[in-house]
Amino acid sequence: MTISQRIEKIRQSLPVNVRLIAVSKQVSAAAIREAYQAGIRDFGESRLQEMIPKQEQLKDLPDICWHFIGHLQANKAKKVLEHFQWLHSVDNLSLAQRLNRLATEMELSPQVCLQVKIVNDPNKYGWEIAELLQDLSALEQCQQLKIQGLMTILPVGLSESEQLDVFYKTNELAQKISQRSRLSITELSMGMSNDYHLAIQAGATMIRLGTILFGERALLK
Ligand SMILES: *Cc1c(COP(=O)(O)O)cnc(C)c1O
Prior knowledge:
Structural class: alpha/beta
Strand content: 15-25%
Number of domains: 1
Helix content: 40-55%
Bound molecules: pyridoxal-5'-phosphate
């Protein structure tokens, strides 16, 4: 199947309120263009150095919305703000505050998801639930950021019911935050090629699909 055929097939199966983000890391600008021609406008990238030259090659497509989904290092914050409209991987308070300060100076209002860690895993980035609940009032002060959602990545090795549980807990956390603070968390960025069905079942509004659209990254040139 071609990229456009895969996109078409997935699209037909998605509820209308679910935004499909095509994860184009390690994917060529030509393949991104093909996905664009098949109607995709949202692309997810995890490395700035890789994305900038591709963005340059695609600058004739002005309505692409770029989503940063990789680990966001504080020293790259300014560049990330320059190149991306959505940041899914804001994973701690001092980073959020730094982005807020820079965005104010740059007169930008980026869309933000807070990355959360529902299952404790020292090797993964993200807020733990209790930590995030403590940081809510400080996050409310980050008014230059449009904090819209929560993002989660599943740890490896969970059964299907455990995966579903993580997604439901993310959804519950979003509701709790909306009740306890002035933040209104309406987006849930969760679900990748292998688990997006479960994520949608638990209320995902944004799914991030790479392999299922573009093929195995190891095989891409
Ligand atoms: C790579 C990546 C994806 C896409 O993963 P696939 O399994 O290829 O769909 C989604 N989200 C994040 C954060 C990623 O790094």
